[in-house]
Amino acid sequence: MGSNSTSTAENNCNVTHLTFQYSLYATTYIFIFIPGLLANSAALWVLCRFISKKNKAIIFMINLSVADLAHVLSLPLRIYYYINRNWPFQKALCLLCFYLKYLNMYASICFLACISFQRCLFLLKPFKARNWKRRYDVAISAAIWVIVGTACLAFPILRSAGLANNTESCFADLGYKQMDTVDMVTMVTVAELSGFVIPVIIIACCTWKTTISLKQPPIAFQGISERKKALRMVFMCAAVFIICFTPYHINFIFYTMVKESIITSCPIVKSTLYFHPFCLCLASICCLLDPILYYFMASEFRDQLSRHGSSVTRSRLMSKESGSSMVS
């Protein structure tokens, strides 16, 4: 990390330059970019164009795919920086890419919680599902974007310290603005509660409720297969949440305290700083796991993708055949 982003604890423990993170970030983002771009583009195409039923959390899936695409499209610039270790572009572009990373993370967390909650609610109260309006999901999604988008502005603001004096640095090498203790505690508490604790409680409760519902007798408009589909969806949301976002939010508390020199124990400082890049890489992998959620957990998505994928293949084959017959 650059000198602007080091704290007293880092200097005392001689952990001021983690060289391995450059190759780690570059490798991870290269691995994610092409599959993530293709999978989320295909998912967004199918979800928006071919699925007429907008219940079963489809609106939230569309927004989740948009959040993933926003991060995926910024990955080439991240790859360039971590390979060359130089930022030749405008600093505003650096901060925008940095911002999109956290926007993707917290928007994904919110939409995963919404998907779990809605599938569980509609499973337990099927009559409510029949009366639910599409505009409700649209309004909830718009509110999430506004709230999360505003809250995530804190990340580029805190990490833009010293950027005017060192315009060749970006991402992991951005400076870190020291905060007042009260402000730091408030920010960490709000981020952990709203971005991790509350969503994980929602997802855990939905998983438990959905599991319990399998032991109850079927009710109107709902068979055992529908309950199993809902359970798979909720379980997948929980898996994505645990794999991608739990490590970061556990480490985030220690990382902030290390940066503020509240934690000075060298073993904790070193383990926290070394673990941080791996946590951010895991958070980015959600761009690959979310399309799996759409494909394997939503029967409508699977049916439409296979149907329209085969029709596109047939039309291309027919055009090639007609073209070859004209040549012959």
Descriptive account of the structure:
- The chain has helices spanning 8-12, 20-49, 58-72, 75-84, 91-124, 126-131, 134-151, 154-159, 181-213, 224-244, 246-259, 266-284, 286-297, 299-327.
- The protein has 328 residues and is mostly helical.
- One of its GO terms (molecular function) is G protein-coupled receptor activity.
- It comes from Cricetulus griseus (Chinese hamster).
- It is a multi-pass membrane protein.
Outline the secondary-structure elements:
Elements lengths: L7 H5 L7 H30 L8 H15 L2 H10 L6 H34 L1 H6 L2 H18 L2 H6 L21 H33 L10 H21 L1 H14 L6 H19 L1 H12 L1 H29 L1
Helix pairs in contact: 2-3, 2-4, 2-12, 2-13, 3-5, 3-13, 5-7, 5-9, 5-10, 9-10, 9-11, 10-13, 11-12, 13-14
GO molecular function: G protein-coupled receptor activity
Function: Putative receptor for purines coupled to G-proteins.
Pfam family, one: 7tm_1
CATH superfamily: Rhodopsin 7-helix transmembrane proteins
Q: How many strand segments?
A: 0
Overall mean confidence score, pLDDT:
81
The helicity comes to over 70%
The CATH topology is Rhopdopsin 7-helix transmembrane proteins
Catalogue the unreliable spans: 320-328
State which percent range the strand residues make up: under 5%
Assign the structural class, choosing from mainly alpha, mainly beta, alpha/beta, alpha+beta, or little secondary structure. Answer: mainly alpha
Distance between the termini: 64 Å
